[in-house]
C-alpha cells in the first residue's frame, strides 16, 4: 500500500508551505509592523484623533500589532523555521492559543465598529448621528475588547499538548463538545464578520449617496448648515474616513473568505475515508488560508497610501515634521 503513496506530491506541498511561511511570513510581519505604526501615527494627529472613526482606526492598528505577533508570528516560526516553544510548555501553549483567538476576534470587531460609526455619522436622523462620538467610541471599544477577552478564556483552559503520532507534538485544544462548538463558531465568525462589514459599508455609502448637503459642523453642534430638506452636511474629513473604511473592507473580505471555504470543505468531508495525499492537501489548504487571513492586517496601511491622497499628505507632513506621536511630544 505504501507504494501507492505519492511522496513527490506530499514533499512538494510541504516545500511550498515551508517557503510560504519562511519567506512570506517575515515579509508580512515587517510590512505589517511598519504599516500599523505609521497608520497609528497618522490617526493620532490632533486634528484627526478628535473624530470617533479615527479612534476606531487607532484601536485597529494597535490590535493589528497583536494579530501580527500573537497570531501570525507563531505559525511563521513553527512552519517556516521549525521553532515552536508551545509544545514544550503548557502555559506557553495556552497563552499562544488564547492570544491568537482573542486578538483574531478583537481586531475585525474594530472594523465593524468603524463601519457602524460611518453609518451613524452619515445618517439623516439626528439621534443616530449623536451616537458617532468619542465617548461612545471609547465605550464600544472597551466593551467589545472585554467581551472577546472573556469569551476566549475557555480556549486557554482547554488547551493541551497533544501527541497524535510518535515524535509529533502539537499545541491544540482538547477534543470535546466545547472544541467542536468552537470549530463551528469559528466558521460562523469567518462568514458573519465580512458580511457585517459589507452590510454596514454599503449602508454608509447609501447614506452619503442620498445626502443633499455636505456636513460642515461636528456632531452635536448647533450650527449645522442645512438645505430646505433639513438634511445635515457631512464633512470632507468624514468622507475620507468612509473611503478608508471601504478600502479596509474591500481588502479584508476576499482574503477572509478563503478560510471559511476551506473549513466548510473540511467539515463536509470529515466523515469520509481519506488518503494521506488528501489529508496533506487539506492541511496545505488550511495553512494557506490561515496565511491569507493575516494579509489584510499587514497591507491595509499601504492600500491607504496608494488610494488616498489625503492619507499620503498626512504621512508626508509627519515625516517632514518628525512627529510620529504628537501626543507624546
From TrEMBL:
<feature type="transmembrane region" description="Helical">
    <location>
        <begin position="284"/>
        <end position="306"/>
    </location>
</feature>
<feature type="transmembrane region" description="Helical">
    <location>
        <begin position="55"/>
        <end position="77"/>
    </location>
</feature>
<feature type="domain" description="G-protein coupled receptors family 1 profile">
    <location>
        <begin position="35"/>
        <end position="304"/>
    </location>
</feature>
<feature type="transmembrane region" description="Helical">
    <location>
        <begin position="137"/>
        <end position="162"/>
    </location>
</feature>
<feature type="transmembrane region" description="Helical">
    <location>
        <begin position="20"/>
        <end position="43"/>
    </location>
</feature>
<feature type="transmembrane region" description="Helical">
    <location>
        <begin position="241"/>
        <end position="264"/>
    </location>
</feature>
<protein>
    <recommendedName>
        <fullName>G-protein coupled receptors family 1 profile domain-containing protein</fullName>
    </recommendedName>
</protein>
<keyword id="KW-0472">Membrane</keyword>
<feature type="transmembrane region" description="Helical">
    <location>
        <begin position="97"/>
        <end position="116"/>
    </location>
</feature>
<keyword id="KW-0812">Transmembrane</keyword>
<keyword id="KW-0297">G-protein coupled receptor</keyword>
<keyword id="KW-1133">Transmembrane helix</keyword>
<dbReference type="InterPro" id="IPR017452">
    <property type="entry name" value="GPCR_Rhodpsn_7TM"/>
</dbReference>
<dbReference type="GO" id="GO:0004930">
    <property type="term" value="F:G protein-coupled receptor activity"/>
</dbReference>
<feature type="transmembrane region" description="Helical">
    <location>
        <begin position="182"/>
        <end position="205"/>
    </location>
</feature>
<keyword id="KW-0807">Transducer</keyword>
<keyword id="KW-0675">Receptor</keyword>
<dbReference type="GO" id="GO:0005886">
    <property type="term" value="C:plasma membrane"/>
</dbReference>
Amino acid at each position: 500500500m505504501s507504494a501507492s503513496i505519492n511522496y513527490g506530491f506530499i514533499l512538494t506541498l510541504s516545500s511550498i508551505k515551508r517557503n510560504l511561511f519562511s519567506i512570506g511570513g517575515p515579509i508580512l510581519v515587517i510590512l505589517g509592523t511598519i504599516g500599523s505604526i505609521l497608520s497609528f501615527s497618522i490617526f493620532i494627529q490632533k486634528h484627526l484623533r478628535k473624530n470617533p472613526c479615527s479612534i476606531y482606526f487607532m484601536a485597529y492598528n494597535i490590535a493589528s500589532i497583536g494579530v501580527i505577533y500573537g497570531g501570525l508570528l507563531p505559525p511563521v516560526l513553527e512552519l517556516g523555521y521549525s521553532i515552536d516553544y508551545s509544545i514544550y510548555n503548557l502555559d506557553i501553549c495556552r497563552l499562544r492559543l488564547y492570544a491568537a483567538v482573542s486578538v483574531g476576534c478583537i481586531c475585525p470587531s474594530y472594523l465593524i465598529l468603524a463601519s457602524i460609526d460611518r453609518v451613524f455619522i452619515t445618517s439623516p436622523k439626528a439621534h443616530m448621528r449623536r451616537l458617532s462620538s468619542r465617548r461612545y467610541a471609547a465605550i464600544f471599544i472597551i466593551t467589545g475588547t472585554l467581551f472577546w477577552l472573556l469569551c476566549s478564556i475557555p480556549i486557554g483552559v482547554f488547551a493541551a499538548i497533544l501527541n497524535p503520532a510518535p515524535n509529533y507534538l502539537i499545541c491544540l485544544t482538547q477534543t470535546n463538545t466545547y472544541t467542536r462548538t468552537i470549530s463551528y463558531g469559528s466558521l460562523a465568525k469567518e462568514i458573519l464578520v465580512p458580511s457585517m462589514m459589507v452590510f454596514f459599508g454599503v449602508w454608509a455609502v447609501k447614506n452619503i449617496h442620498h445626502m443633499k448637503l455636505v456636513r460642515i459642523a461636528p456632531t452635536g453642534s448647533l450650527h449645522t448648515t442645512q438645505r430646505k430638506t433639513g438634511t445635515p452636511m457631512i464633512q470632507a474629513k468624514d468622507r475620507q474616513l468612509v473611503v478608508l473604511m471601504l478600502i479596509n473592507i474591500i481588502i479584508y473580505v476576499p482574503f477572509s473568505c478563503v478560510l471559511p471555504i476551506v473549513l466548510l470543505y473540511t467539515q463536509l468531508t470529515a466523515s469520509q475515508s481519506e488518503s494521506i495525499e488528501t489529508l496533506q492537501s487539506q492541511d496545505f489548504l488550511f495553512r494557506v488560508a490561515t496565511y491569507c487571513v493575516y494579509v489584510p492586517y499587514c497591507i491595509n496601511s499601504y492600500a491607504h497610501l496608494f488610494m488616498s491622497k489625503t492619507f499620503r499628505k498626512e504621512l508626508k507632513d509627519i515625516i517632514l515634521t518628525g512627529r510620529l506621536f504628537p501626543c507624546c511630544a
